[in-house]
Specification:
- This protein is α/β, with parallel strands linked by helices.
- It contains 6 helices and 7 strands.
């Protein structure tokens, strides 16, 4: 995603030689193989988060079956929740490509993360589009999502716009003074101070040109997973605080009512 505080342009990545450079979709439907140079791979990775013993269970893959398995796990996890939010992030192909597209799509629910490598894939996961177009069950949460929406469309994907919210417009870092807040300062203020350094663990100029390469190196998988995790965690914390304040006000309104308290 593009963030004004640490980059003047969206994150980008390098296509493989022979990969589609026109307006053709990078992956196709109906199990028809794409003739361009691709790579079927899967990298499972456990990623540490904000200086605790917690870890993200990450699957980075271009394989549709592996992606479908993780999507099924995400759906199953969401089934037991009252608030069914999915953290989303998108990384882009190189900005000097003829048409910059989505290279990576990241989805996060609690500790489960899918890093789906679009530019390395030959087939869409069967469960991906139905998940992204879900009309009632889920809310997708991203950060600075305008560019992400555009690049996903160029790659043949779209998240239901009625269920896709921008966390950058839902909460402000206190006393920040900036119109556009960076994800790192947003996360450091709302989730954990260690996130202030989250964007400094990769080379801005070089690593952001590698999102189209496969397989992704572990440091980029970790970076991508944390971006999606941050939006998920931010949404969860804001919802908890909002709900707590609403219950608090309701309790104040009924403080002297014994029937409200059940005695």
């Amino acid at each position: 995603m593009a963030e004004a505080s640490w980059s003047n342009s969206p994150p980008s990545a390098k296509h493989h030689q022979g990969e589609a450079s026109g307006k053709e979709p990078l992956v196709v439907d109906d199990d028809i193989p794409v003739p361009e140079q691709k790579q079927d791979y899967t990298v499972p990775l456990m990623v540490d988060i904000h200086l605790t013993k917690e870890k993200l269970d990450v699957v980075c893959t271009s394989n549709p079956d592996k992606a479908d398995k993780r999507i099924h796990e995400i759906r199953r996890r969401l089934g037991g929740m009252l608030s069914r939010s999915i953290g989303v992030d998108v990384e882009y192909t190189r900005e000097d490509e003829p048409l910059q597209k989505a290279a990576i799509l990241q989805l996060c629910v609690e500790d489960l993360v899918l890093v789906y490598h679009i530019t390395a894939a030959t087939k869409w996961p069967k469960e991906l589009r139905p998940l992204l177009q879900e009309k009632k069950l889920y809310t997708f949460v991203g950060f600075s999502i305008g560019g992400d929406k555009e690049k996903l469309k160029f790659s043949g994907l779209e998240i239901n716009p009625d269920k896709y919210i921008n966390m950058q417009r839902k909460w402000r870092v206190p006393n920040n003074g900036k119109k556009w807040q960076a994800l790192a300062e947003f996360a450091a203020s709302l989730i954990h101070p260690s996130y202030k350094e989250m964007k400094k663990k990769i080379n801005k100029e070089l690593d952001h040109k590698l999102w189209g390469d496969s397989p992704l190196p572990n440091n980029l998988i970790e970076y991508a997973a944390k971006d999606a995790c941050v939006t998920y965690e931010a949404r969860k914390k804001i919802e908890i605080v909002k709900e707590g304040l609403e219950y608090c006000q309701e309790a104040e309104d009924h403080w002297d009512d014994p029937y409200y308290w059940g005695y």
